[in-house]
Amino acid sequence: MKKNDVKNDSRKDNNLMVKIATFIVDKRRAFYLIFALALVLCVISIPKVQVNNDISSYLPEETETRRGLTLMDDEFITYDTEKIMVTTITTETAEKLKDKLEKVDGVKEVEFENDDDHYKDSAALFTVTLSVRDDLDRELEIVDDLKAQLDGYDFYAYSDSIDDSSKQLEKEMTVILGIALVIIIAVLLFTSQSFMEVPIFLIVFGVAALLNMGTNYLLGEISFITKSVAVVQLALAIDYAIILSHRFAEEKQTKNAYDAIVTALSKAILEISSSSLTTLAGLAALMVMQLRIGMDMGLVLCKGIICSLVTVFFIMPGLLLAFSDKIDKTTHRSFVPSIEKWCKVVIKLKNIVPYIFIAIIAVGAVLSSMSNYAFDATAEQLKKPTENSIAKRKVDEIFGTDHQLAVIVPSGDYDREAKVISLVEENPSINSALGLANTELDDDHILTEKINARETSKLMNIDYDLCCLLFQAYGAEHDEYSAIFGDVNDYEVPIIDLFMYVHEKMDLGVINLDEDQTNDINGLYDKLTDAKDQLESDNYSRIIFTYKCDIESDEAYQMLKDVRSDVEKYYDECLLVSDSVNSRDLGDSFGGDNNKINLITILALLL
Fold it and tell me: Can you give the pTM of this predicted structure?
């Protein structure tokens, strides 16, 4: 290409930028109106933005945690629980408090026994099951009502399912934003050429922030982490504003205010746009993360850059032109000291500095590979721990660490479930187990225990001949004809299945019992139905274990391997769901994502 051709293309580009800049400046009042309407809509939309507080929901679909949580949502009913420890009380007082807590509206049941698991060192531990599901606001109301019942007592309450870490992060980010604004104002006063520039910069920053926050509504839902960091990231709008402001000041030395802002904007559009591409490239790299929160953060943060650009290009030129005279009147001397001597030193060391930086980069890369990341939301990482984490730490100090592990296996074989429970309970890291195969009906019977007609007659206080007919009917309906053609007492049925069958026949009017028997069956049916809803579906069974090791410890990860090995001795497939599994999956996803993001970012910046 000839030099003249290059010059002509350059002039065409400059003419185009000048035309665009002239249009923006001439139509500035129209843009004011457009942005005013947009801001009104954004202010209305901000409270309506849905915020997702569950990081595990962003895990890839193929991870065990995501598959397990999805399956549990589809197959089982899970009630949220609140653990409350009341200190310096007697067991008699604890029993009275249990009765009070059970009467709170929205409480399903309260677990407390006079044993070491619930009473130790004059402290009582209550496990409160809430009857409300998937309604965080209502659950928080119930928790407040529970706390009101304990007024006057020294107590600590926490929940693994009702997490307040997002609220704590939001509060801290609000403080950080306030500190950042003070620092930004101080830096602007120090580096600006006129005091009047500072309020203009802040207006640009505020408009860009409101636009980004309001347009999050269009995304449907964002994570609480994205919400917290997005506003601070918009400080880049200040950087772009400073570039345009300095351009305007330079052009005003030889031009009037109108021509100066047109020329400054025509030059700044290309400069700022090209500068923003490096930032956009780094943020866009987040979108390729396997962990889907990267897509969430990448979209919102890239949108924030675009909001900053749009605000600087379409709002700021009019503001600079409108306040040009006041900018001139409030011009001050530069507070930035001369760095000429430092520049001379840098130039003299130009052959050494690159090698120093290469060494620093190498050391940084090694240290980065050695970094440990915490993925447990309850980990004590904050200087100001949340109320939830403080209460949990206090409970753990007295009663020990206690986390839940759900093991999901195919349903239909209570004997295998019982063997799994018995084997896994031998693991030293396991505290307790709960499944249909070890749930007691009374002191002498387990729900899944098999009984015959004679034993059923005693247990249910029903006529023996009626029980025989009942077993024969059950066997016929389930294609087990030994109940009909053999000795009926040789035929056994799991208690839980038998009770469900009896209740079904009672509803159909096939079986008629007296009032006391009917009430007993109905009361037991409600308990059995509740247990089955939480622990068994048509396709799967869920066994809940509690373990005492720290969530992200080597002991916890080894425990998961051991439990899986034990379960797979009886089942070809199983899913494990716990905070430890979640942390492991987050760590595995993040490890690969981190390397991918770094590589893509470097390539994008080079491009």
Answer: 0.74
